[in-house]
Design brief:
Shape: globular
Order of helices and strands: EHEHEHEHEHEHHHE
Low-confidence stretches: none
Protein name: SDR family oxidoreductase
Mean pLDDT: 93
Family: Belongs to the short-chain dehydrogenases/reductases (SDR) family.
Number of domains: 2
Helix content: 40-55%
Distance between the termini: 29 Å
Organism: Rhizobium lusitanum
Largest sheet: 7 strands, parallel
Strand order of the largest sheet: 3-2-1-4-5-6-7
CATH topology of the largest domain: Rossmann fold
CATH superfamily of the largest domain: NAD(P)-binding Rossmann-like Domain
Pfam family, one: adh_short_C2
Strand content: 5-15%
CATH architecture of the largest domain: 3-Layer(aba) Sandwich
Structural class: alpha/beta
Number of strands: 7
Number of helices: 8
CATH class of the largest domain: Alpha Beta
InterPro entries: NAD(P)-bd_dom_sf, SDR_DHRS6-like, SDR_fam
Radius of gyration: 18 Å
Length: 258
């Protein structure tokens, strides 16, 4: 299927690793013009060595000023952003008894505001031009409360509402916004979560992984490429009537209808 993504300008936050990197690979294969963003220049350099034709930008997206600066730079270098894929930021997993107001606030900065700071300038420009798509890779922690991920899960829940609310606000101006909630995916972030779960339960990381896999009916974690395939479709004109929804990709682990 031709997704019609050739020459589209795509900005992927968190594009140097994991799901973001897989998205960058796929968009390049589809002929898009790809920019990736990370707070680490070394991560950008490593990623670009495998992403021929992509451009890399360094920014701490918890800063609205840095987010705006990177959006301005991408549009000056490549052109108006057609597609924004947010996959940056992750809140540290913290047991409930160890949470403090500062940790809750840090989690919101790390996940919620790192997305909002990028979305705000981009979606307004998309709306002014009359077209665009924003895909927010969020996470099922916003739907299923975990005692080890309450702060980060709360940020995810806020992003889910922001995604569908912005979709409603901008639909009449030709902009689509979709949230995507991966379940367990083969990334470094999930490995860190398994390590935290193992520590809390007094088990090994291998035992924590085996226990996690038992709870996924499809029998495996998602690969980053699994998520990227859906991101690319949702970004394309083939999904022109898909907006204002949050789609779960968790291998049927949580069989709910909302």
């Amino acid at each position: 299927m031709d997704l019609g993504l050739k020459d589209k300008v795509v900005l992927i936050t968190g594009g140097s690793k994991g799901i973001g990197y897989a998205c960058a690979e796929l968009f390049l294969q589809e002929g898009a013009r790809v920019a990736i963003c990370s707070r680490s220049q070394s991560n950008i350099d490593t990623a670009l060595s495998g992403l021929a034709g992509a451009r890399g930008y360094t920014a701490d997206l918890t800063s609205d000023a840095q987010a705006l600066a990177v959006v301005d730079k991408v549009e000056a270098d490549i052109g108006p952003i057609d597609i924004l894929v947010n996959s940056a930021g992750a809140a540290a997993r913290t047991p409930a008894d160890e949470l403090t107001p500062a940790i809750w606030r840090t989690a919101m900065d790390a996940k919620y505001f790192s997305y909002i700071n990028a979305i705000d300038p981009v979606i307004k420009r998309m709306g002014a031009r009359g077209s665009g798509a924003v895909i927010n890779v969020i996470g099922n922690g916003g739907k299923i409360a975990s005692p080890f991920h309450l702060a980060g899960g709360s940020a995810n829940a806020a992003l889910m509402l922001a995604s569908v609310g912005l979709a409603n606000a901008y639909a009449g101006r030709g902009v689509r916004v979709v949230g995507l909630n991966p379940g367990l995916t083969e990334t470094g972030r999930v490995a860190e979560g398994l390590k935290a779960a193992a520590k809390a339960s007094g088990s090994t990381q291998e035992e924590a992984l085996a226990d996690a896999l038992k709870r996924i009916p499809i029998g495996r974690m998602a690969s980053p490429a699994d998520i990227a395939n859906v991101v690319a479709f949702l970004s394309s004109a083939r999904a022109s009537y898909v907006t204002g929804v949050v789609i779960s990709m968790d291998g049927a682990q949580v069989p709910v209808v909302v």
